[in-house]
Specification:
Chain B: Keywords: ATP-binding, Nucleotide-binding, Transport. Chain B: It comes from Streptosporangium minutum. Chain B: One of its GO terms (molecular function) is ATP binding. Chain B: Pfam families: ABC_tran. The complex is a heterodimer of chains A (about 260) and B (about 260). Chain A is an all-alpha fold. Chain A has one domain: MetI-like fold. Chain A has twelve helices and no strands. The longest helix of chain A is centred in the C-terminal third of the chain and has 38 residues. The two termini of chain A are about 35 Å apart. With about 260 residues, chain B is α/β, with parallel strands linked by helices. Chain B folds into two domains: about 170 residues, P-loop containing nucleotide triphosphate hydrolases (Rossmann fold, 3-Layer(aba) Sandwich), CATH 3.40.50; about 70 residues, no CATH class. Chain B is about 30% helix and about 25% strand. In chain B, helix 3 crosses helix 4 and helix 6 packs across helix 8. The longest helix of chain B is centred in the last third of the chain and has 17 residues. The chains are: A mainly alpha (about 260), B alpha/beta (about 260). At the A-B interface, helix 8, helix 9 and helix 12 of A face strand 6 of B. The complex binds adenosine-5'-triphosphate and magnesium ion. Adenosine-5'-triphosphate binds next to strand 2 and helix 1 of chain B.
Chain lengths: ~260, ~260
């Protein structure tokens, strides 16, 4: 009950904004800015008028949303795994760092959308190319943060590991990785929001399904409520992903928050 | 068991070089509890880190049980000065204690039992499932002592282990140290800057000079009976030894008619 009240307290601005928006757009009568109720009706039409046995989801909803979310998560997980592994290796091995750091700095300076033509030529249009664009565009925050976290492991922790003769595996998985975890999570969070952006961009240019494709489709047929509806779906998706991520972070890093508060 | 010969260490080089250890010769017999006292910043931690193989001294040798220390030796445990950075905050207390036991060939159950037993020894039964940051400073230092005990080292090094706890906890931990050395036949080297503590806990007190640290005194402590925080500290021999060590630490010459041998 208390939680519901608190959530309501946090979200009070949403209905206020919606009402104001509705009134302003109705008064303005500009076709480019349809009122929220029109957008909602269009969204309902677009996603929720399917048959009952499929939970009323339309063909478009069942095709586009899972396709997009799947690519986004696949790209994010892949970037996470590679970024953490490479970042930690670079953080712990100064030689590797000296060798790879200039390359990393160069590669991350390239704006990821610029890579689209290159990746399109390399992989042809389709999920493989999109996942590659996402991975390449979002790996840097994870990689750099993991490297920094691994480099800055408390010397006393490492001394303790040495004195008590911990094995390489124990040192890596029980000391270095957990020490770097707060930084890694900060990187993963940035990457997640970047992943959403790159997912849409890659679908706008090279895709035959997905939310971005649907956005393009609506725009091409001058269906402005449809464009707005897709944007709203993207916003909701971003919000849900971020909330889920924060919940996971709270669980994994509970020691970190608590340890910080007491010292 | 431990022989240190002509140990020197210089940090850095050139004009900014700092000579921390200026030729230390020290032998510790098996089962002994040696306290090393010295003024702040004289090089006590440097000495301990070279014994533990955490630092490669620029000169001299440390020999432990017949073999020179090059990497961290087996059978050696350290209780570090700064307890808050020595325990791993992402692990429960019991996991912290049992983590090093895997290499001893114990299975999971044995490790857990050994950890709980060590925690009981230091008076922390029931704290195993907690996290280090849920404990007070004194309790955290007990956990790091328990971790060292569970490891059953032949040589235990303690670097100002009670430096940052309150006076009462400090006395408790001193007595705990005296108690556990009776249980396992450990050799202990305890570093401190507290003169009273060195005389109360040690079988022997080694006094270091200001940097570059050298040994200026080596006194045997012969106090009667089991030590007690009140009666031992008012014993005339204790009072005398304390004054003697105090003089040495302050760089005065030792009095000829002393309890030292
Ligand atoms: N990594 C290092 N690089 C350069 N100088 C160092 C380093 N570590 C210690 N020193 C210097 O060596 C001297 C001895 O340091 P050490 O930590 O051994 O002293 P200590 O006796 O343990 O001091 P305290 O009582 O404060 O713990 C100090 O003057 C310190 O500044
Ligand atoms: Mg020190």
């Amino acid at each position: 009950m208390n939680r519901v009240l608190r959530a309501a307290g946090r979200l009070w601005a949403v209905p206020v904004v919606l009402v104001v928006w509705e009134l302003v757009t109705r008064a303005a009568e500009d076709l480019s800015f349809p009122p929220p109720t029109t957008i909602a009706a269009s969204m309902y039409e677009m996603w929720l008028t399917g048959p009952a046995e499929r939970l009323w989801l339309t063909e478009a909803a069942l095709e586009n949303i899972p396709a997009s979310v799947g690519r986004l998560l696949a790209g994010w997980l892949l970037a996470g795994v590679i970024g953490i592994a490479l970042g930690i290796a670079m953080g712990r091995l100064p030689l590797l760092f000296r060798f790879l750091d200039p390359l990393v700095q160069f590669a991350r300076a390239i704006p990821p959308p610029m890579l689209l033509p290159f990746f399109m030529a390399l992989f042809a249009i389709g999920p493989r190319m999109q996942i590659n664009v996402i991975v390449f565009g979002i790996i840097w925050p994870v990689l750099i943060n993991a490297g920094e976290g691994a480099r800055l492991v408390d010397r006393q922790h490492l001394d303790t590991a040495r004195v008590f003769g911990l094995s390489r595996g124990q040192r890596l998985f029980q000391i270095i990785l957990p020490s770097a975890m707060p930084k890694i999570f900060a990187g993963l969070r940035v990457s997640l929001s970047l992943a959403l952006i790159l997912m849409v961009i890659s679908e706008l240019v090279g895709s035959t399904d997905g939310i971005g494709f649907q956005l393009l489709d609506a725009q091409r047929s001058y269906d402005l409520p449809g464009v707005w509806g897709t944007i709203v779906v993207l916003g909701v998706l971003g919000y849900v992903l971020n909330s889920a991520f924060l919940a996971a972070e709270r669980r994994v890093l509970s020691w970190h928050r608590a340890a910080k508060q007491t010292t | 068991m431990l022989e240190i010969s002509n140990l020197t260490h210089t940090y850095g080089s050139g004009p900014s070089a700092h000579n921390a250890l200026g030729g230390i010769d020290l032998t510790v017999a098996e089962g002994e509890l040696v306290c090393i006292v010295g003024p702040s910043g004289c090089g006590k931690s440097t000495l301990l880190r070279s014994i533990a193989g955490l630092l490669r001294p620029t000169g001299g040798q440390v020999v432990l049980n017949g073999s020179p220390v090059e990497q961290t030796p087996d059978n050696l445990a350290v209780v570090f000065q700064d307890y808050s950075r020595s325990l791993f905050p992402w692990m429960s207390v019991a996991d912290n204690v049992s983590l090093p036991l895997r290499r001893k060939g114990m299975d999971k159950k044995q490790r857990k039992e050994a950890a709980l037993e060590a925690l009981e020894q230091v008076g922390l039964e029931g704290a195993g499932a907690k996290y280090p940051w849920q404990l007070s400073g004194g309790m955290q230092q007990r956990v790091s002592i328990a971790r060292a005990l569970a490891y059953r080292p032949a040589l235990l090094l303690m670097d100002e282990p009670f430096g940052s706890v309150d006076a009462q906890t400090r006395e408790e931990l001193e007595d705990l140290t005296l108690r556990v050395r009776g249980h396992h036949n450990m050799t202990i080297v305890l570093i401190t800057h507290d003169i009273d503590e060195s005389v109360y806990v040690g079988d022997r007190v080694v006094v270091l000079s200001k940097a570059p640290a050298g040994i200026v005194g080596d006194l045997r402590v012969d106090l009667p009976g089991p030590r007690d925080q009140i009666t031992t500290r008012e014993h005339p021999d204790f009072v005398h030894l304390r004054a003697e060590v105090g003089r040495l630490v302050r760089g005065m010459r030792s009095q000829p008619a002393s309890a030292s041998q």
